[in-house]
Amino acid sequence: MTQPLLIAFDGPAASGKGTLASVIAADYGLPFLDTGLLYRAVGHVARERGLDLEDTQALGEAAQFIHPTLLEDDALRGREAGEWASRVAAIPEVRAALKQFQIDFAHQTSGAVLDGRDIGTVIAPDATVKLFVTADPETRAKRRFLQLIKANSALTFEDVLSDIRIRDERDSSRSSAPLEMARDAVLLDTTNLDIEAAIEAARSIVKARRGGV
Question: Is position 142 annotated in a ligand binding site?
Answer without folding.
Answer: no
